[in-house]
Amino acid sequence: QAAALQTYNNELVKCFDDLCSKREELSLQIKLEEEEKERLQHDIRSLSEKLSRVNESLAQKMAAHNTIDRTIAETEAAYTKILESSQSLLSVLKQQAGNFSKTSEPRRKEH
Q: How far apart are CA 97 and CA 102, in angstroms?
């Protein structure tokens, strides 16, 4: 019986030592993963801040782009109106010049 108790005791000590080794190994893995988790959380915070800055910059640039598009469209419309007015003015001036030429021509004497 003493030999059996000694065998059980030896197995118990071995199992206990194995559990202690596994605990140490798991503790090391936990520590490493917690460190990795901290790095990842830091990276996420950093990237989130960067994303926020990029989104803000993008929104400002898109607003400026839209303003420029609107200004270009308004300028083109105004320029088209100027061209149309210039054409109308030119037509009126040509017509008036033609009328003036007709009234200022010397009349021919009829015989």
A: 9
